[in-house]
Every structure is written in structure tokens, then in C-alpha cells.
Design a protein that fits this description.
The complex is a heterodimer of chains A (491) and B (331). Chain A has 491 residues and is of the alpha/beta class. Chain A has 17 helices and 20 strands. In chain A, the strands form five sheets. Chain A has a six-stranded mixed beta sheet with strand order 6-7-8-3-9-10, sandwiched between helices. A six-stranded mixed beta sheet of chain A has the order 16-17-18-13-19-20, with helices on both faces. In chain A, strands 12-11-14-15 form a four-stranded antiparallel beta sheet, with helices on one face. With 331 residues, chain B is mainly α. Classes of the chains: A alpha/beta (491), B mainly alpha (331). At the A-B interface, helix 2 and helix 3 of A face helix 9, helix 10 and helix 14 of B.
């Protein structure tokens, strides 16, 4: 591909990018959010058309007006981050669907459908029930279904858009084995990821995009994580640890023997002002449910929660907010933001009470003032406060969610997966915000999969496993390996 | 056995059996072949609509305008066969043609202007119906040709009851049955049918996997139009008069039947079997209440209650299922 450009209204998404991938190569595409990775993928797969002057060649043939069906016929398969599966259909049909469409027959033969699905599963040695609905599968299994679907056609290039975000370490290893296996069959893989250690582990070559321009293509042997970060962001980031300075002795939050049947049991911990406490553990270890209990979204069965020494019963989200608790949920798209509404409205939604003027109507001046304050405070980069949140990059969206909760002036802030799916630079600026808040005396709970993240940003780390707190580490006295081992150990 | 209880249809079937038993206990005339054939005939009209609506709901859309489409198709058909004569085949082609044409108008608006389907079809309902009322002046048509009348009386086979009165499977029911078989085959065994499910599941994913969304939508709404045209014809056959205001207003009855049968307004789910059961349930409730001498005003209350129960039940089931997926060992 040569000279690929794409302009959306007002934004130059891609600016004269050249890109090539060899047969059987494992190639990683990295860049910050908004650097044009997704646009490039959409153009390769024919979902979007490039602007004038672009040249695309596949197997030495020039391609004009590439449509998605053409690109599929050429052997290019994309597995999007959302997997693009049909959750209302069965596993077998999902796998066989692409091939069914590509075939010239107008009819479906259900025997063939099952056969296609079985063959594809055998190729990567997985076994998922064919008649199960995809909506009933785990994310890892859904991903395998998506890969199987890609393998049903005569695939030459498999494009994976952030495949590892929702996977556990073990599942990632399994995925990498599949990719290497495909390589030995001459299938090239293009891999998009934010997790740089993974990129370096699997890729042969790495192409870096920044602000729609290609920075360069490098053999992965010449790179390390720091250099890659520098190429992506154009700046050096510091990876220092959070230093906790003891402030008061009175804990902000104490949790004692908190239990909720089927979710977690006998959880006891405390949080001091200025502390950043990390809670890590596998998906489904009960960490999110614990956070939801603290925020009044669920009721614990037994145990006690004390806020600043006083026993508290948190029966609703309103009560949690009144007690000074803020919660940045795991899924900002579903729970954290009103995507169609403007940035400004999203920020003030939690503090409507505070911006009411006479007659209890919203006072536009107060509203404007607090919106501007938070945008500046968290350096949210937006064209205007009126732009809908869904038009922002992941990192800026996350800043909006954080802004909306800090605006309530909480004493305790719970962040669930605060940096999932956002790029390194945005990640480190979110971390910076968290540290600043803690230094100002807030108590912060960070829930995250990434051991490295909690290790660098927290002073204490709690590990949850199957609903129980199994271990506690001081960040200064442990290593990433030790905590990771504790998380992975099956008890 | 356990597998059956995963399906919404099983529960609807159980409710139907329960209702039938209660009605039969009160009035044994309910469970007679004669009554059953009669029900099958009179509910062919709602039933054919329901097949079209099932397609639209599975595809992730909704159509409100089908009653107006049926009325226009019926009226045009009646005017032409009275003025120029013809035969039953011509009547079919006319009704079907007008239906498909109006369906295509819906599809075009929905696809090119990206207006939500419910709004588009509310608008076209008013437009189609309004234009018809203006042109026809709201006049009823009674003078349908004799061949049209006699076609409606054809029975596929004939039985006689104790009193010697003939009854049997009407040709009108046969139209419904043919429509169902055809629609079932399309949904189950064609690429087109699976495309409709896929589009209803996720339109973006369907586009990415290579379905032509434009073609699919054109098909879905013109199929809905075809069904509406046929339903209009069937209505004319059933009542032998054409009244511009007799069909519009039945939209919600049909939607209710289809939703009862398990199709979701969110798209992607629904089966023809479910739809048939939904129509059956509505039919026996209406008929049963009459046979039990309950005031017909209660009918609406019952329909409302059954819809709420059925929909909240399946919502509860879905929640229970996702809950099971995230559960972890706390013990």
C-alpha cells in the first residue's frame, strides 16, 4: 500500500502512509489512540475507501475501489476488537457464515455449516460446542470463534485489532501459539495492541503511526519498550513508583468481613487518606462486585463498612455519593458516560445540585464555570465542550469520566480498570491524575488486571481470588513477578 | 427435555394448552374441528401480517405501516377487478405488486435517509392511508365480482357436522400455510434468511462479514409489503367488502402476536414457529372469551396482561442467564 490518505470532516486521519506486509509475517501496528490505526485497517479491509491518489496492491495486482467483499475474496480477514460476532446465532453458524456468504449458492446446507465449523476448530485445536449461542460463551471462547471464522476462508492475512484486552495471561499465551502456528502455514498476521511487551514478544516487524503519519517500520529486534513508547508518543515517559506519605491515622474506609453470596466472602481491608490501594486478580474474582457494593449498587449480605470511623449502610448510589464515594466503572462506554451527550453535560451530571441557581433551575454561568474548571484541571483535549463524548479518543473519554467523579469532591475514589483500552501516553496521564488526587488527601482504590499498573501506582496491593482477599503486598517490598505469581496461582 | 425449556416457544405452547383446557371445560364447543377450522380461516389475515412482521423484527427494524399498505393494496385490487374484470390470479398479482411497491418505498426511506424504522413507517402509514382516503373519499366497495366471492368459499377438503352443515379447511387458510412454509424455508435455508438474522444481531458485524445491507433491507421491507398485500387480499376474501378504515388500527394486535411468539424488538431473535404460536394464543384468547361469554372488552385487558407476563418472563430468563455467566465461587 502506498500513499494512503484519509480525511474525515475536519480530521486528517491518515496522511500519506505507506505500508507493506510479507507473506507469513507477524507484523504489529502500534500508535496512540487516534493515530490512524483503525482507519488503516478499515481501508485494507475495504470497509472505508482511501482518498484520491492511493495505491493498493495485493499479490502484485493493483486494486481499485476495494470493497469489503473483494478484500475477503483476496484472503484478508479482520477480527475487530468487538469481535463482530453474532451473539444471537450459534457457534457453528458464526464460524461458517463468512464462507457461506462467499459461496455462490443461495442456500444453506446445515450439514456443511457444521462441517466447516468443525474443520476450522480442528485447525487450531479448540473444542467449543457447536450449538451453543455465542452470547452464552466467555470472551476468550468468543475470540476463538472469531479466529475460527477467519480460518474458514483461504486466509492469507489475518488482522487482529487489540485481541488481548479481555484475555487472561494464559489465554494470551494460547492465542500467541495459534498465531505462530498460522505463520508456519504461511498466513501473515497483523496485530494491533497497546500492550508493548506483547508486541515485542510476538512481532517480527513493527510499524509505528503517530497523528496519521507513519513514523517508520522497525524489526522488533531493534526495539525495546522504552524506545517504542518514545516512537509512539514523541516523548519520554517516567515510570517512577508512587510514594505514599503518611498523612492522618484515621482511615477513610474500613471494610470488615464483607460478604455477598456468590460474589465475595469475608473481605477485610482499610484505606487511609493519601493511599492508593490496588486490587488485582483474575476477571470474575469478585473485585468489581466488591466495588459495586461499596458504591451502593449491590447490597452485601453481611459484614461492615465504616466511613471515617462511622458505620455506614450504603443502600443506593445517592447515599454513596453523599458519603463522599466516587466510582469510575469498568466499562466507561456502558456505565460511565452518556455517549451521545456533550462533554460538558457529562461532566456536570454528577453535580447538578451544585450548579442550580434561583428557582432550582440550572444556572448556565455556574455550569460553564465548573465545566471549564475540570477541562483545564484534567487537560482534556476537545474541539469544544459541545462535542459529543463518543467523538473523543479513549483516553480523553476516560478523563471525562474521572472529571465527572472528582467534581463531586469525593473523599474516596474507586477506579475499576481505569486504563483499559487506552494508549500509553493517555494511560500515564491518567496515572498522574490519580497520584495528584491521592497527594491531596483522597483515598483511592484502583482495580486492575495489570499487575504492572497497580505496582507502579499503588502503595499497597491486594490480591483477590475466587471472592476472597488472598494476599497483600507493599509496592516497595515486592516485584511484578511475585504479585503475578500470586494472581496466577490456582488454589 | 431440559433443552426445550431454554426456548421461549415451549412456554407459549404450555400457556396455549392451559388456556385451551380452561376454555374447553367451560364450553366444550371450543375444542371442535369446526371451531378450529373457523379460527384458522379468520386468523389467516392476522397470521399473514405476522409472518411479515416477524421478518422485520428479526432484521432489527419495526414496521407500523403494513396495515395502510394492505388497505391500499386491497383497494387498488378491488377497483381494478371491478372496472376491468379479470380473475383471481390477477387479483393476487395486483395486491402483491402494490404491497411490494409500497414496501420498497419504506425500504428506500429507511436505507437512504437513515431514519429510525418506527418513525419512517409511522409517517408512511399516515401518507399511504391519507392518500387513499383522499382519493377514495372513504367509500366502501361492496360490488365485488362473483368469481371473487366463489373463490373465497372453496374448501380444500370438506367435512360435515352432526347438523349436516359443511365445514373444512378453507382455501384462505391454505394461502396462509403456503406463506408460512415459504417464509420458513427462506429464513432457515437461504443465505438471505440468515443474513436477516445476522443483520438483526449486529448490523456493523453483518456489513463487515460481507452482507449487502441495502439488498437485505430492500428484501425485508418489500417482503413485509408483499405480506401486507396478501393480507389485504385475504381480508377482502373474508369479508367480501372493501372498507378503507377496516384494517388500519390492527398494527398493535399483530405486533403483540409476534412479540408473544418470542421475537425481540431489539432484533436478531424470533422464529416462525413462535409467531404461529403467538397468533394462536391471541386467536384462542379472543375466541375463548367469546365462547365463555366474557365481555369482549376484557379481551384487551387479557392481551395486555399476557404480553407483560410473557415479556417480563423472557427478560428475567435472560438476566438469570447472564448472571450465571459471571458468578464466582464465594464459598
Amino acid at each position: 500500500m502506498k500513499n494512503i490518505s484519509k480525511r474525515y470532516t475536519g480530521v486528517q486521519a491518515l496522511d500519506q502512509v505507506d505500508f507493506e506486509i510479507e507473506r507469513g509475517e507477524i507484523h504489529c501496528l502500534v500508535g496512540e489512540n487516534g493515530s490512524g490505526k483503525s482507519t488503516l485497517i478499515k481501508i485494507i479491509s475495504g470497509v472505508e475507501q482511501p482518498d484520491e491518489g492511493a495505491q493498493i496492491e495485493m499479490d502484485g495486482q493493483a486494486q481499485h475501489h476495494l470493497q469489503s467483499i473483494d478484500s475477503i475474496r483476496k484472503g484478508i480477514e479482520v477480527i475487530y476488537q468487538d469481535l463482530s460476532l453474532f451473539s444471537n446465532l450459534t457457534v457453528a453458524e458464526n464460524i461458517a457464515l463468512a464462507q457461506t456468504i462467499a459461496s455462490n449458492s443461495r442456500f444453506i446446507n446445515w450439514g456443511t455449516v457444521r462441517q466447516i465449523a468443525e474443520t476450522a476448530m480442528q485447525r487450531i485445536e479448540v473444542n467449543i460446542l457447536l450449538d451453543e449461542l455465542v452470547s452464552d460463551l466467555s470472551v476468550a471462547d468468543q475470540q476463538l470463534v472469531a479466529i475460527c471464522r477467519a480460518l474458514t476462508s483461504d486466509v492469507k492475512l489475518l488482522i487482529l485489532d487489540e485481541p488481548t484486552t479481555a484475555l487472561t495471561r494464559k489465554e494470551i499465551e494460547a492465542l500467541f501459539r495459534v498465531i505462530t502456528d498460522l505463520q508456519s502455514k504461511g498466513i501473515a498476521t497483523m496485530f494491533v495492541s497497546h500492550k508493548l511487551d506483547e508486541v515485542l514478544q510476538i512481532a517480527q516487524r513493527v510499524t509505528v503511526l503517530r497523528d496519521g503519519k507513519k513514523i517508520g517500520g522497525f524489526p522488533s529486534g531493534e526495539l525495546n519498550s522504552e524506545k517504542l513508547t518514545f516512537l509512539m508518543t514523541g516523548k519520554k515517559l517516567d515510570y517512577s513508583q508512587y510514594e505514599y506519605v503518611t498523612q492522618e491515622a484515621q482511615p477513610l474506609l474500613e471494610v470488615e468481613d464483607l460478604s455477598k453470596a456468590g460474589n465475595f466472602k469475608d473481605v477485610t481491608f482499610s484505606l487511609l487518606p493519601g493511599e492508593i490501594v490496588g486490587i488485582t486478580g483474575l476477571l470474575g474474582s469478585g473485585r468489581t462486585e466488591l466495588a459495586q457494593c461499596l458504591f451502593g449498587m449491590m447490597q452485601p449480605d453481611s459484614g461492615e463498612i465504616r466511613i471515617q470511623g462511622k458505620a455506614a449502610r450504603i443502600r443506593s448510589v445517592q447515599e454513596a455519593i453523599e458519603l463522599g464515594i466516587g466510582y469510575v466503572p469498568e466499562n466507561r462506554l456502558l456505565q460511565g458516560l452518556v455517549m451521545e451527550q456533550s462533554v460538558g453535560r457529562n461532566i456536570v451530571i454528577t453535580i447538578i445540585e451544585k450548579i442550580l441557581g434561583a428557582l432550582r433551575l440550572i444556572d448556565p454561568r455556574k455550569k460553564q464555570k465548573s465545566i471549564e474548571h475540570w477541562i483545564e484541571e484534567l487537560s482534556i483535549r476537545i474541539p469544544s465542550v459541545e462535542s459529543p463524548v463518543q467523538t473523543l479518543s479513549g483516553g480523553n473519554q476516560q478523563r471525562v469520566v474521572v472529571a465527572k467523579w472528582i467534581a463531586t469532591d469525593p473523599k474516596i475514589l474507586i477506579l475499576d480498570g481505569p486504563t483499559v483500552g487506552i494508549d500509553v501516553a493517555a494511560k500515564s496521564s491518567i496515572h498522574e491524575i490519580i497520584r495528584k488526587l491521592a497527594r491531596e488527601g483522597m483515598g483511592i482504590l484502583v482495580i486492575s488486571d495489570e499487575v504492572a499498573e497497580v505496582l507502579h501506582n499503588c502503595n499497597r496491593i491486594l490480591v483477590m481470588h475466587k471472592g476472597r482477599l488472598v494476599d497483600e503486598f507493599r509496592a516497595t517490598e515486592t516485584s511484578e513477578e511475585e504479585v503475578q505469581r500470586c494472581v496466577d496461582t490456582v488454589r | 427435555m431440559k433443552k426445550w425449556f431454554k426456548h421461549h416457544e415451549t412456554y407459549v405452547l404450555l400457556v396455549i394448552i392451559l388456556f385451551s383446557m380452561i376454555i374447553t371445560l367451560v364450553n366444550p364447543n371450543f375444542l371442535t374441528l369446526e371451531n378450529m377450522f373457523d379460527l384458522l380461516k379468520s386468523y389467516s389475515f392476522i397470521g399473514i401480517f405476522a409472518v411479515g412482521v416477524t421478518f422485520v423484527l428479526i432484521s432489527g427494524g419495526i414496521d407500523i405501516s403494513f396495515t395502510a399498505v394492505a388497505t391500499v393494496a386491497e383497494y387498488v385490487m378491488a377497483v381494478v377487478i371491478i372496472k376491468y374484470g379479470g380473475n383471481i390470479l390477477l387479483a393476487f398479482l395486483l395486491a402483491a405488486g402494490v404491497g411490494i411497491l409500497l414496501g420498497l418505498i419504506n425500504a428506500t426511506l429507511i436505507h437512504f435517509f437513515k431514519i429510525p424504522t418506527i418513525i419512517t413507517t409511522i409517517a408512511t402509514l399516515n401518507i399511504f392511508y391519507g392518500i387513499l382516503t383522499v382519493i377514495s373519499g372513504g367509500k366502501w366497495i361492496y360490488a365485488l365480482p362473483d368469481w371473487f366471492r366463489s373463490f373465497a368459499d372453496i374448501r380444500v377438503f370438506t367435512l360435515r357436522n352432526a347438523g349436516g352443515i359443511a365445514y373444512g379447511l378453507s382455501i384462505i387458510t391454505l394461502i396462509w400455510i403456503i406463506v408460512i412454509v415459504l417464509a420458513w424455508a427462506i429464513l432457515r435455508f437461504t443465505k438471505l434468511g440468515r443474513g436477516i438474522y445476522a443483520m438483526g444481531g449486529s448490523m456493523t458485524a453483518a456489513r463487515r462479514v460481507g452482507f449487502n445491507i441495502f439488498k437485505l433491507q430492500m428484501f425485508v421491507y418489500s417482503f413485509m409489503g408483499l405480506m401486507a398485500g396478501l393480507a389485504g387480499l385475504v381480508q377482502a376474501l373474508l369479508v367480501q367488502t372493501v372498507a378503507p378504515n377496516s384494517i388500519v388500527g390492527k398494527e398493535l394486535d399483530v405486533l403483540a402476536a409476534v412479540v408473544l411468539g418470542g421475537a425481540s424488538l431489539a432484533g436478531g431473535t424470533g422464529t416462525l414457529f413462535g409467531t404461529i404460536l403467538g397468533v394462536t394464543l391471541i386467536a384462542i384468547m379472543s375466541n375463548g372469551l367469546t365462547l365463555m361469554r366474557v365481555s369482549s372488552f376484557w379481551y384487551n385487558v387479557f392481551i395486555g396482561l399476557v404480553i407483560i407476563l410473557s415479556v417480563s418472563f423472557s427478560a428475567y430468563q435472560r438476566r438469570a442467564r447472564t448472571k450465571r455467566a459471571i458468578i464466582i465461587e464465594g464459598e
